[in-house]
Design brief:
The complex is a heterodimer of chains A (298) and B (408). Chain A is mostly helical and 298 residues long. Chain A contains 14 helices and two strands; from the N terminus they run H-H-E-E-H-H-H-H-H-H-H-H-H-H-H-H. Classes of the chains: A mainly alpha (298), B alpha/beta (408).
């Protein structure tokens, strides 16, 4: 807007221009400057803290002080492998993560199908909002709400009382219930996207060729939507695997997350060693998911 | 396909590189230790100067009230006005948590129980205290001075705060007749009556409660001190706790959660602090509590100053403030414990507390004549059994491990 450049074509160029010249035509420099921030964060902040965690798992504790002593030992890993309690807790955690994943998949499949293929556009967007709204409130609030719901004098028991039954109370069952509720949106959205990507014409073609609904589902829909289910399962499985807040609020049962959390104040190296277990489980899970084509659908 | 294979090779290279980096780091760090464990005996303040304007404390729940829980219960605002030290409070729910927090070096002081004090002293996390700079120290009950858990070789490492016993609390509507023994939670026949509604303190130190029960009910185990357990005694305590596990509704470490559980009827019987009992009682909930016939475990708390304290002058001012007779009377009545300052037991102070009761000190046995001296105060288990058994006792490390196994 200013008249600076209009009258005399000044040869002096601003610093910004000179910087732009520097980058001009140098694609590597461009990419480098663009990625320096995110990559730096990923390597230093993310992988760096992970590396420190893994290093801590090789340390030990002083007897009385309970202070971390930085000398190399494999004792922590030995404890985790040899002590049966850690195996039990690991299996229980994987079990609940699998149960939550299956539950959410079963709930999400019909819902997502309805959203993507049956509902009118208006209902469709309403449903998407309805699925996403719970994500706007804090995780802690939702978990605590479930604590009150499941309580002895909570609303669930009050509602079930006339039927002569009572709720599950606090415990493993409660954890399964709460986790399935909290992580459901993470399963619905990828599956919804998966269904959305299937053209209606494909379904019509199947019908025209004489396939009944069951056959269409098995031979057409399922293969196309399966990678999306796997993609959703990565979220539900990994989020349940590492959680420690909901389990402490609605049960006294130990899971990997709660053991790590309580051990971290008493024996940091052991906690660090144990936290490598979910990392390993997730690496295996992700390798399988990749094979199943989930990464093209996230 | 070929680009896929290439990216996979890169990924493996990255993983390998990371592992090498970690291994190198771990081994490198292994070498340069030994100087790290600074032994106890840091600097001691010789005079209290001007306040630094700020004070960061780690407190047991209800030890540091600023009126936000109850507008009438407030001994921090007064301190801030008097000294200009702005107080920031971090609540610790277990001793383990407090030790962990102290080691961050971000706090000036802590109200540490006996199972934290020794760990903090041994770890060099706290400094000795110059008691001459704390005028109210003179009025502290003699039975709390120079104790093994708050001093080393006659040098105090803190200022005593107060003490008391863990209570057995029960819901009077559900648990009848009123129990007077810990068998209400440990005897399978008794505990089965409240299956799914029994509670216990979620910390390895709770193993001592089981050991105390065995000390009275299975004398042939020969337990003489619930914190000095050899293999056989320790395993017996763990087995008892594993048996108790099936009757537990939930373990508690967050006092607010326990209050909620008792109020809702999710929990009907179990160990508690007097604070929760008083809070439930004040709300009109049907609860009662007692120190059972076996006696109980308990706490004797000490205010300690961090060796990294950024605000040592404010911390010394706090030492003296928290042991003022009126503040002591307030805290003692609010939490439900015996004050450390003998003057706090005078009626003029007790009358002005949050739960005015001139008999408070008698009830809580502040002078220690009746039962207080016989409580088993929280302390850190070490391998030295303290008797002719030698170094065969289970250390706190084992207790931590044992507690994980109890919870299964």
């Amino acid at each position: 807007m200013e008249a600076a450049g209009l009258g005399a074509p000044a040869p002096r160029r601003s610093a910004g221009h000179r910087l732009a010249d520097l980058f001009h035509g140098r694609s590597r420099l461009q990419a480098g400057a663009l990625l320096a921030g995110p990559v730096g964060w990923l390597v230093v902040g993310y992988l760096g803290s992970l590396a420190i965690l893994l290093i801590a798992s090789f340390w030990s504790l002083g007897e009385l002080s309970g202070e971390v002593e930085r000398s190399f030992t494999l004792d922590n890993f030995k404890t985790i492998v040899e002590d049966p309690v850690y195996r039990t807790v690991t299996l229980r955690t994987v079990g609940i993560a699998a149960a939550v994943t299956v539950t959410d998949a079963l709930l999400a499949l019909p819902l997502a199908f309805y959203m993507a293929k049956v509902a009118k556009p208006r209902t469709q967007s309403l449903l998407v909002v309805a699925v996403l709204v719970p994500l706007w409130s804090s995780y802690l609030v939702k978990a605590f709400a479930w604590r009150t719901i499941l309580s002895e004098e909570g609303i669930l028991n009050w509602a079930l009382d006339p039927l002569g039954i009572s709720g599950p109370g606090y415990g493993t069952l409660a954890v399964w219930l709460v986790m399935s509720y909290i992580w459901l949106p993470y399963m619905v959205i990828p599956i919804y996207a998966g269904f959305d990507r299937i053209p209606d014409s494909v379904l019509s073609a199947s019908e025209d060729l004489g396939a009944k609904a069951g056959l269409t589902f098995r031979r057409v829909i399922w293969p196309l939507v399966f990678p999306a289910i796997v993609a959703g399962s990565i979220f539900t499985f990994s989020l349940t695997l590492g959680d420690f807040i909901a389990p402490t609020l609605v049960s006294s049962t130990q899971f990997i997350g709660t053991v790590v959390k309580s051990t971290i104040t008493t024996n940091l190296p052991l906690a660090a060693a144990y936290s490598t277990v979910p990392i390993l489980i997730m690496i295996v899970y992700l390798l399988i998911a990749r094979r199943l084509g989930a990464f093209e659908h996230v | 396909m070929s680009s896929d294979a290439r990216s996979a090779r890169w990924a493996w290279l990255a993983v390998a590189g990371l592992s090498v980096f970690i291994a190198a780091f771990a081994i490198g760090c292994g070498g340069d230790d030994s100087t790290d464990a600074t032994s106890a005996g840091g600097e001691m303040l010789s005079e209290v100067g001007k306040g630094e304007g700020e004070l960061n404390l780690i407190c047991w729940p209800s030890y540091c009230e600023d009126g936000s829980t109850d507008p009438d219960v407030d001994w921090i605002t007064d301190f801030e006005k008097k000294t200009g030290c702005e107080v920031n409070v971090k609540i610790g729910n277990t001793s383990d948590e407090m030790v962990q927090l102290m080691r961050t070096g971000q706090y000036d002081g802590v109200s540490a129980s006996g199972d934290a004090t020794l760990r903090l002293i041994d770890g060099g996390d706290v400094d000795p205290v110059n008691t001459d700079l704390v005028p109210n120290y003179a009025d502290i009950f003699p039975g709390l001075k120079d104790q093994p858990f708050n001093s080393v070789d006659g040098q105090m490492y803190g200022i005593p705060h107060g003490r008391g016993g863990n209570l057995l609390m029960w819901n009077t509507d559900e648990v009848k007749p009123a129990p007077d023994s810990w068998s209400a939670v440990f005897d399978p026949n008794e505990a089965a009556k409240q299956k799914g509604h029994v509670t216990a303190y979620d910390s390895p130190i709770y193993i001592a409660d089981a050991a105390l029960y065995l000390m009275k009910h299975q004398p042939d185990l020969g337990i003489t001190n619930p914190y000095e357990l050899d293999e056989e005694q320790f395993n017996a305590a763990i087995d008892l706790l594993k048996q108790q596990r099936q009757f537990i509704g939930e373990y508690w470490s967050d006092y607010a959660k326990q209050i909620q559980s008792f109020a809702n009827g999710d929990t009907t019987v179990g160990t508690t602090w007097p604070y929760q009992y008083l809070a439930l009682k004040a709300e009109g909930d049907p609860v009662a509590s007692t120190i059972p016939e076996e006696g109980s475990t308990g706490w004797s708390d000490t205010w300690m100053i961090s060796s990294d304290a950024q605000h040592p002058n404010c911390m010394y001012m706090w030492f003296n403030h928290i042991t003022e007779p009126q503040v002591q009377a307030d805290v003692a009545e609010w939490f439900g414990e015996a004050p450390a300052n003998s003057k706090a037991c005078e009626p003029q102070y007790l009358k002005k507390g949050p739960f005015p009761d001139v008999k408070h000190c008698e009830k809580y046995d502040a002078s220690g004549e009746k039962y207080l001296d016989d409580l088993w105060y929280w302390t850190t288990p070490v391998s030295d059994c303290g008797d002719d058994r030698g170094d065969v006792c289970k250390t706190y490390d084992d207790w931590v491990q044992g507690w994980t196994e109890v919870k299964g």
